[in-house]
């Protein structure tokens, strides 16, 4: 793997993540862009954590005691970080574990919850559904 210098603007936590990933894996350009966003997110989380440690997890406000705004934002940043890291498809596991060293399979195409089948698979058309319905009705009537 080729060593690549961390982009300017990253703080220590982000630089550590950048180096640890690129020391192990060769990433495509779009994957490096996701890694950069993950590194920036790590840096933001570090700053938010410092604010919560400094002020405590609860703060006083005109509405009473509330969760520290930095703690609330950190929760959102952790979700974003988890999604970025999942999108990178980096393996997790012990050394020597074949599953850990193989990068997960890429998904092909766009996944959507609903779609028009248009004749694919079982019941791809309205006509096929009508025929099945008539066949069931005929069987029930026999």
Provide structural commentary.
With about 140 residues, this protein is mainly alpha-helical. It has a domain at about 1-90. The protein is about 55% helix and about 5% strand. Strands 1-2 form a two-stranded antiparallel ribbon. The termini are far apart. The mean pLDDT is about 80.
Keywords:
single chain; 56% helix; 5 helices; flat; 2 strands; mainly alpha
Distance between the termini: 70 Å
Low-confidence stretches: none
> How many DSSP helices?
5
**Shape from CA axes?**
flat
| Oligomer description | single chain
Based on CA atoms alone, the radius of gyration comes out at 25 Å
Compile the SSE list and pairings.
Elements lengths: L11 H13 L4 H27 L2 E4 L2 E4 L1 H20 L9 H4 L24 H16 L1
Helix pairs in contact: 1-2, 2-3
Give the structure's gist in a few sentences.
With 142 residues, this protein is mostly helical. Helix content is 56%, strand content 6%. A hairpin with a 2-residue loop joins strand 1 and strand 2.
């Amino acid at each position: 793997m080729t060593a690549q210098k961390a982009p300017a603007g990253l703080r220590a936590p982000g630089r550590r993540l950048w180096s640890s990933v690129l020391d192990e894996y060769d990433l495509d350009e779009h994957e490096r862009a996701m890694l950069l966003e993950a590194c920036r997110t790590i840096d933001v989380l570090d700053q938010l954590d410092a604010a919560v440690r400094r002020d405590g997890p609860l703060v006083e406000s005109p509405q009473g005691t509330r969760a520290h705004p930095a703690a609330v934002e950190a929760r959102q940043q952790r979700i974003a970080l988890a999604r970025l890291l999942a999108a990178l498809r980096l393996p997790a596991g012990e050394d020597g574990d074949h599953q850990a060293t193989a990068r997960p399979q890429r998904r092909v195409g766009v996944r959507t919850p609903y779609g028009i089948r248009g004749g694919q698979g079982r019941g791809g058309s309205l006509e096929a559904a009508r025929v099945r319905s008539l066949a069931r009705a005929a069987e029930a009537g026999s």
